[in-house]
Write a structure and sequence with these properties.
This protein has about 450 residues and is α/β, with parallel strands linked by helices. It folds into two domains: about 60-305, 3-Layer(aba) Sandwich (Aspartate Aminotransferase, domain 2), CATH 3.40.640; about 310-440, Aspartate Aminotransferase, domain 1 (Alpha-Beta Complex), CATH 3.90.1150. About 35% of the residues lie in helices and about 15% in strands. The protein has helices at about 5-25, 45-60, 65-80, 90-100, 125-135, 155-160, 180-190, 240-250, 295-305, 310-330, 365-370, 405-410, 425-440, and strands at about 85, 115-120, 135-140, 165-170, 190-195, 205, 205-210, 215-220, 230-235, 335, 345, 350-355, 395-400, 410-415. Strands 1-9-8-5-4-2-3-13 form an eight-stranded mixed beta sheet. The longest helix has 24 residues, at about 5-25. It is flat. The termini are far apart.
Length: about 450
């Protein structure tokens, strides 16, 4: 038998054992109300992810390779964009998105220290952090209650001659008012960057979020719609931006060869850039002050198996959201319930619940009760980020006020809608709400 055939046979035998191991480990899971945790999110996988992981491991190609290339291609196809570049996390993807806009290759449109970026203070820190890390000035616009998206009607009021970009997240999967934002961005020649980390599979006007911005980002952390464990992606339709993003991700190098390949440009020793001598190896010429934020092929192998399940995951999230909404709408005297942005169909990351200020209980009361009964809850990430200790001394500007952001910080929590929440778990969630609310 030829060595290739032997290897293929051995892989097949290993994969069969992996499947057997998965079935043995997984077994029959029993949900015990009040004892089994109802998580807000989690990994949903089967033997397919494990087989892909082992397959990539057997290659021992420990950096980006064949699985990474296939994942990037299929993710781009799914979202309807030209380019997807994998990174080691969604936070790194956000860092790369803003770093790319500082490139000298963008000439007069590059972001420079002191330039302003419109965003919100209500969200996850790593949407804000890259703005600050590049010595840019965040301009905070308040959010809408119910959608928890940036109040697009206030954006134009925030714009000054120093404003160069809008960088916002689709909070908990609910799209921002993309149509309005695109009009503003075009009118004022602003970059539009979408943080799509919570919204993979959401649509606006029938088109996937993550496909509208000059640059957009995804996260594949275990809590998100699909997972690689750690991982993220940067997406764009612009070839120059794609080249810049890849450079910042890959040490800042000018060379665009894939890892493990040489001389894609066919003139590796015929370049003269900067003050380097003519013919200096293009693989070691650096046009940006970059990072190493690449992904491993083992992560991409898991992600590829997850990507095939994405449509089912989206459907399950929407179904769970609808079930929660139908149940909780009878309690709207106590809660402000979420609703989709107009023209959107969210792929929900979670179900946000705002306790009304005149309710006969506080957020702490209901959150404590739910947690005591093994139902996981979460705040809307950092609440009002400028009130977090990390941001005490940053330079920023606020448009009007952040009244709704503060209400979210004080009164809102959210619970999960991920595919691991089945009918038994939903019924338990309903029972706990019923018990709590019957006593107030």
């Amino acid at each position: 038998m030829k060595s290739e055939e032997q290897e293929e046979q051995l892989r097949k035998e290993i994969f069969e054992k992996v499947s057997e191991f998965y079935r043995s480990k997984k077994g029959a899971e029993t949900f015990i109300p009040g004892k089994t945790s109802v998580n807000y999110a989690g990994r949903i996988y089967d033997e397919t992810e494990l087989i892909n992981l082992v397959d990539a491991s057997l290659d021992f190609w420990l950096t980006a390779g064949r699985y990474s290339a296939e994942f990037e291609s299929k993710l781009a196809d799914f979202l309807g964009v030209k380019y997807a570049l994998l990174a080691n996390s969604g936070s790194s993807a956000n860092l790369l998105a803003i770093a790319a806009l500082t490139s000298p290759l963008l000439k007069e449109r590059r972001l420079q220290p002191g330039d302003e970026v419109i965003t919100t203070a209500c969200g996850f820190p790593t949407t804000l952090n890259p703005i600050l890390q590049h010595n840019l000035v965040p301009i905070f616009v308040d959010i809408e209650l119910g959608t928890y998206a940036i109040d697009a009607a206030k954006i134009e009021k925030a714009i000054t001659p120093k404003t160069k970009a809008i960088f916002v997240a689709h909070t908990l999967g609910n799209p921002v008012n993309i149509g309005h934002i695109l009009q503003i961005a075009k009118k004022h020649n602003l970059w539009f960057v979408e943080d799509n980390c919570d919204a993979l599979g959401s649509t606006y006007n029938g088109k996937y979020t993550g496909s509208f911005g000059d640059i957009s980002t995804c996260s594949f952390y275990p809590a998100h719609h699909i997972t690689m464990g750690e991982g993220g992606a940067v997406l764009t339709n612009d070839h120059l931006l794609k080249r810049i993003i890849a450079s910042f991700r890959d040490w800042g190098r000018d060379c665009w060869c894939d890892t493990g390949h040489d001389d894609s440009c066919k003139k590796r020793f015929e370049w003269q850039l900067g003050e380097l001598p003519f013919g200096y190896d293009h693989k070691y010429i650096y046009s940006h002050i970059g990072y190493n934020l690449k992904v491993t092929d083992m992560q991409a192998a898991i992600g590829l198996a997850q990507l095939k399940k994405l449509n089912g995951f989206i459907e399950a999230r929407r179904k769970n959201f609808d079930c929660l909404y139908e149940y909780l709408k009878k309690y709207e005297t106590h809660f402000i319930l979420p609703h989709p942005t107009e023209q959107s169909e969210p792929s929900w990351f979670g179900f946000p619940i705002m306790v009304r200020e005149d309710a006969p209980f506080t957020r702490k009361d209901i959150v404590s009760y739910m947690e005591d009964n093994k139902i996981a809850t979460r705040m809307l990430f950092g609440g009002n980020l400028i009130k977090q200790p990390a941001y005490e001394n940053i330079q920023y500007r606020i448009v009007d006020d952040l009244k709704n952001t503060d209400m979210v910080m004080n009164n809102l929590f959210w619970i999960g809608v991920y595919p691991g929440i089945d009918k038994q778990r939903l019924d338990w969630i309903f029972e706990i709400f019923e018990r709590f609310l019957s006593g107030v």
